[in-house]
Amino acid sequence: MKPLFALAIGLASLPRPTFGLVGITYKMWDPICAHACFYAISSNALSCSSHEEMDGMDMDMGMAMTTPECRANDTSYLTTLAWCLHTRCVGIPTSKLEAYWEVYPTEDKAVAPKWDYGTSLYNVNMTQPPTRELGADDMLNFTAVVPDDAYDLQFRTLEQMVNEETIHARYGVALLVTGFATPIFLTWMGYLPYMTGLLDKIRPYLVYPSLIGTYHVRPLPYLLGNAPTVGQGLYIALFLILNIVLSAVNFRSAQPSAWYTSRYQEIMAWIFYRTGVFSFALAPLVILFAGRNNILLWMTNWSHSTYLLLHRWIARIYTIQVLIHSITGLVLYQDMGTYSSNLTQPYWIWGAVATVAICVLLLASVLPIRRWSYEVFLITHVVLNVFVVVGSWYHVYLRFGTEYDYVMWMYTAIAVWFFDRLVRVMRIGKNGMRRAKVVDVGDGYVRVDVEGIRWSAVPGQHVYAYFPTLNPLRPWENHPFSVLPTAMLQSPTQDDAKGSEDSQHESEDVEKHGGSSAHAIPAFDSEGRRTTAGLTLFIKKSTGMTKYLKAENRLLTLLDGPYPNNSTASVLQCDRVLLIGGGIGITSLLPWLNSHPNVKLY
């Protein structure tokens, strides 16, 4: 006889023609009465069934194995199922029952029953309706009546599963929407009447200060990371509390259950399902916040650094959900006695790969590793992320196929990642392949001039520069640099002769000129003509890709940008702007000189 736990995780063998999210875009097991009829008779052997012998059992006690072709052509099975639908699905339109019949009765939508629902019901003797009930161990070789207790058991179990899956999907959407919409709501709220003055009073206390002393820009002791600001901390707290609450409420038991032998097993299963859904629901948000082309950067006034900090915190919550999902699944399967049989299944192995990868990824992303070698961190981050996404995909694909709502979350996560990468490629393609002139200006600094780039002197922008020929073994390496139009490095009143004279001072370090450095070095194109086009990067050599930079006239350069840093609108509305910078940081301040009428640079 079929064990109670045989359908433990999601009825993967059942064909599912519907695509979307349970309870949002479609109803699961609709109509439930029809599916309850099927499961009430699905374990009974048919005349065409084969038997799988089990240790210690004779042929008659073996497990009945019934193929889709067997179900499709067995008269007693079809008439029994049709009679159950006729008597149990009262009030359900015949068209819906016919739609069910086209897909589900054989457990394989590619194998159609020999009769449709109407024909199968027609072959039931209506003058003498069936009266003999089907026993649990009976062979189904007659038109049988499904007992009330067997039908009710299946109906109650399926109904509870539908309720739980609906809650999981809706709560998952709630998490995703909350994480995505909160920055938009808080930004747009600032444009409401009378809000400007109120927010100006609140921000110095509830937004800007660090949550832990002065540890925000500078890291915490022992390189534990960067503390969030109070505003960032409120977002993190809101999201964490929402995860905890939604992970802990609305669990119900429907014992006795056709799948689980105890209330403990059933509740563990619901926790197992929900944390799995939540981890998938958080995946798009984790990827979005880490992206350069995060659409929230265009819709809100939150900075890229804020989203990166939130990315790290949401990734930690995501990892916790994954670990709870894995641990509860392990405990549940052991309690049900199915752990050893599932351990070698491909879907289980891929799930384990994704779980291990996300744990290693979290440990490999700590601040000491990022400071030790950002290039190593970046490579391991990308590779491990591939294992997480691929492992998660195969985990659900091999278990449920592509017609289950879990894959919707993965489609969303992959789409977010693909969009970010596509826009990066498009930006690089738009800027084209450039040849840069590199000049060593001393003290470990180099000046990189890229001709032909016409970008406005907008403050608060950066670009990701690729120099593929610097390290041919790692051509993908890139780093962000502040955007500085070359035209800002020349005086508009200089003539060519004066410009030629001043160009002899290119080797001087830019910050040595103080506030006047923005007008010290004239800009010329490759033919010696003065030009307003061009982009200049001042780079301090470090231990990574930049250490290979040296004087060169035609360095292959690819530019991904420009990208915004922080929102500058509120600063530009001030009466006076005071800028203080030194070293390489001066390049990010120079564009402010052309953007505000009353600015002072030190």
From TrEMBL:
Gene Ontology BP, a term: iron ion transport
Region of interest (Disordered), residue spans: 491-525
UniProt subcellular location: Membrane
Major place of residence: membrane
InterPro entries per record: Cyt_b245_heavy_chain, FAD-bd_8, FAD-bd_FR_type, Fe3_Rdtase_TM_dom, Ferric/Cupric_Reductase, FNR_nucleotide-bd
Endpoints of the signal sequence: 1-20
Keywords: Glycoprotein, Ion transport, Membrane, Signal, Transmembrane, Transmembrane helix, Transport
Cellular component, GO, one term: plasma membrane
Start-end of Basic and acidic residues biased regions: 495-514
Superkingdom of this protein's organism: Eukaryota
PROSITE patterns for the chain: FAD_FR (PS51384)
Membrane topology annotation: Multi-pass membrane protein
CDD domains: NOX_Duox_like_FAD_NADP (cd06186)
Chain ranges passing through the membrane: 171-194, 233-251, 271-292, 348-369, 376-394, 406-423
Keyword Zinc-finger attributed: no
Protein's name in the database: FAD-binding FR-type domain-containing protein
Source organism: Paramarasmius palmivorus
Record lineage: Eukaryota, Fungi, Dikarya, Basidiomycota, Agaricomycotina
